[in-house]
Backbone:
């Protein structure tokens, strides 16, 4: 163990081993994953994001929403996400193939948002939550996403509208070849 | 503690490495004088970043139970400040301090007089500048969605170059060492210093520069995070423990012959443990299982470090002597925390347990156990040993040392215990299908706020003491450098 080259070669090998065994092998398996129809000849999923939702993703990242919210539904045997109503099926890799930067998240100070678009009833409900979250919630208000109208009511501005469009686009309620919805 | 009497040399602190300088203060050796400038720079930078991080930690902790706190403008939203606090802590405090610590350890163990230390200092300047620019960008513009990769990708190049300048030089020092004997600390430092830039570069490429497909980004990120935590932070701190423990106890390590195996098994398995933090995520099951197996295999390096450290401490009233030694009080605290952290990581890589606690504050508590209770406390202990040897001065205030230890120790015990406890109870409540809003406890946020304030107090105490010492820019350092 007195040889610098031996130590360096050894450390390089250990890094190469985990890099190859996990990352390259994972890339070999999922690197070419794309959209797929739920059944033969059906529309491709995940659906293409509307342009406003792509802008909204930038707002989501800017505000650091990923610090408190995840976007992944775990299978029933590996967590209580489905029982909590956060998704109708587990998330699969294909759900994320269109996302330029995946915001899976690591901490839930707020609920999971992977299927939020299917849960939220309307734009107005999302806007109300962003401008004035429920009392007792750890979520702060985001007044910078709103303009105040003459009657004192709040209307989402350009960034607010984009973020709402993004949140509405968060849906994982379609069948995927790997995770078919129970009928 | 042995630092009580400010006017006499504290007993049992060990002699400085190498022979004394011919002129000026006999307390600064040639080796220490050669490396003083860059190491002082890194420690001073680290301390400033630590203070910033501590203030931000108080703000973010308060925001969790008072969401309206400082919500006046969008720049101070929780998501932004949380990201900044994390980056300041890991890249500002921990990395600066460990680069400086590693530099000193390699020079001391190799008995090598550092030439051209200004190159390492230049690396440190670039590093701190890059971090400042990155943080400003997160504050005013946007951030990336991955922990410790939030900074804009352009900053990564500056970090990489800075690290080569600041940490490549220790490697050069090692190559040119006068002594042939290689001690285990040197392996850990070399390993850590080569893993970080390689892993960081590959991760930046695969996540930010040429993003890989979908969830693979999360896989790459988990690989990066575990390498960063265990093989950069953890390995560097282990190097310090392996140095200070036998030195201050004036004994040899129990089972030293096992430390080679401990080193190689840690570096072999730690890189594979990333997927153990992705259990239930949409990555292939075989990858998740590989992570679990690797996490369980960490039992081998854990057993070996336990034999080395606890075996040494249990001889000749080692625990008592450690408690009464400033450096070892922090270092012993740290190595106990390390053992607990790895043990928890092993146990909670089991799928059923992980299912309960994932995404709760339990994981945050585990991380804090490793990064603060272990790494940061070891850095503090090392600083108490090293800084006097670089400045030729003594710590100005013994009271501040006590305040520093007790404040930080109580804070981290409270914070970690609270995170683990409340995380576990939240996980159990969620598993019992309670609505999410009812599973959060306000006491948790209050406890973490109180601990954040205690951390700040402890860090201010340490900073006052350290800057007090550093600013008595002793003429003895200058004379020693001219010798």
Residues:
């Amino acid at each position: 163990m007195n040889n610098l080259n031996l130590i360096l070669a050894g450390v390089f090998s250990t890094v190469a081993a985990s890099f190859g065994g996990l990352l390259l092998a994972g890339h070999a398996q999922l690197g070419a994953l794309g959209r797929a129809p739920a059944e033969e000849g059906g529309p491709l999923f995940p659906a293409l994001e509307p342009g406003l939702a792509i802008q909204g993703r930038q707002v989501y990242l800017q505000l650091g929403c990923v610090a408190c919210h995840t976007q992944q539904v775990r299978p029933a045997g590996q967590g209580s996400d489905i029982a909590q109503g956060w998704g109708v099926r587990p998330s699969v890799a294909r759900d994320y193939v269109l996302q330029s930067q995946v915001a899976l998240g690591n901490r839930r100070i707020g609920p999971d948002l992977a299927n939020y678009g299917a849960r939220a009833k309307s734009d107005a409900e999302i806007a109300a939550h962003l401008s004035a979250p429920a009392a007792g919630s750890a979520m702060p208000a985001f007044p910078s996403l709103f303009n105040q109208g003459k009657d004192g009511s709040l209307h989402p501005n350009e960034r607010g509208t984009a973020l709402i469009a993004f949140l509405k686009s968060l849906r994982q309620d379609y069948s995927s070849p790997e995770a078919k919805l129970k009928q | 503690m042995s630092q009580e009497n400010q006017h006499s040399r504290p007993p049992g602190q060990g002699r400085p490495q190498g022979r004394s300088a011919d002129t000026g203060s006999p307390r600064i050796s040639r080796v220490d004088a050669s490396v003083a400038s860059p190491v002082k720079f890194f420690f001073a930078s680290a301390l400033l970043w630590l203070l910033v991080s501590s203030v931000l930690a108080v703000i973010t902790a308060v925001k969790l139970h008072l969401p309206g706190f400082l919500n006046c403008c969008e720049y101070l939203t929780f998501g932004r400040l949380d990201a900044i606090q994390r980056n300041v802590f890991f890249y500002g405090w921990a990395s600066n301090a460990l680069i400086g610590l590693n530099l000193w350890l390699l020079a001391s163990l190799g008995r090598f007089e550092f030439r051209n230390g200004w190159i390492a200092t230049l690396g440190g300047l670039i590093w701190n500048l890059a971090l400042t620019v990155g943080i400003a960008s997160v504050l005013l513009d946007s951030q990336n969605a991955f922990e410790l990769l939030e900074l804009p990708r352009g900053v990564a190049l500056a970090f990489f170059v800075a690290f080569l300048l600041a940490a490549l030089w220790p490697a050069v020092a090692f190559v040119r060492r006068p002594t042939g004997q290689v001690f285990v600390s040197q392996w850990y430092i070399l390993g850590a210093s080569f893993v970080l830039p390689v892993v960081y570069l590959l991760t930046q490429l695969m996540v930010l520069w040429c993003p890989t497909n979908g969830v693979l980004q999360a896989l790459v990120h988990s690989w990066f995070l575990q390498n960063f935590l265990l093989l950069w932070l953890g390995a560097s701190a282990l190097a310090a423990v392996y140095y200070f423990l036998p030195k201050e106890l004036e004994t040899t390590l129990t089972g030293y012959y096992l430390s080679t195996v401990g080193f190689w098994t840690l570096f072999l398995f730690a890189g594979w443990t990333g997927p153990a933090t992705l259990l239930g995520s949409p990555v292939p099951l075989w990858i998740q299982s590989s992570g679990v197996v690797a996490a369980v295999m960490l039992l081998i390096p854990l057993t070996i470090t336990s034999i080395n450290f606890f075996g040494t401490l249990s001889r000749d009233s080692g625990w008592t002597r450690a408690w009464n030694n400033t450096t070892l009080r922090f270092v012993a605290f740290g190595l106990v925390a390390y053992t607990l952290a790895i043990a928890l990581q092993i146990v909670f890589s089991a799928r059923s347990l992980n299912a309960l606690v994932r995404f709760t504050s339990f994981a945050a508590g585990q991380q804090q156990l490793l990064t603060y209770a272990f790494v940061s406390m070891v850095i503090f202990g090392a600083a108490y040993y090293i800084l006097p040897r670089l400045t030729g001065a003594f710590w100005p205030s013994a009271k501040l040392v006590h305040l520093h230890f007790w404040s930080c120790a109580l804070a981290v015990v409270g914070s970690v215990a609270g995170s683990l406890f409340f995380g576990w109870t939240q996980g159990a409540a969620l598993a019992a299908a309670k609505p999410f809003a009812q599973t959060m406890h306000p006491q948790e946020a209050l406890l973490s706020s109180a601990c954040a304030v205690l951390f700040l107090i402890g860090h201010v105490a340490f900073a006052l003491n350290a800057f007090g010492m550093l600013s008595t820019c002793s003429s003895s350092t200058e004379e020693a450098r001219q010798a």
Notes: The longest helix of chain B spans residues 30-65. Chain B has a mean pLDDT of 90. Chain B is about 75% helix and 0% strand.
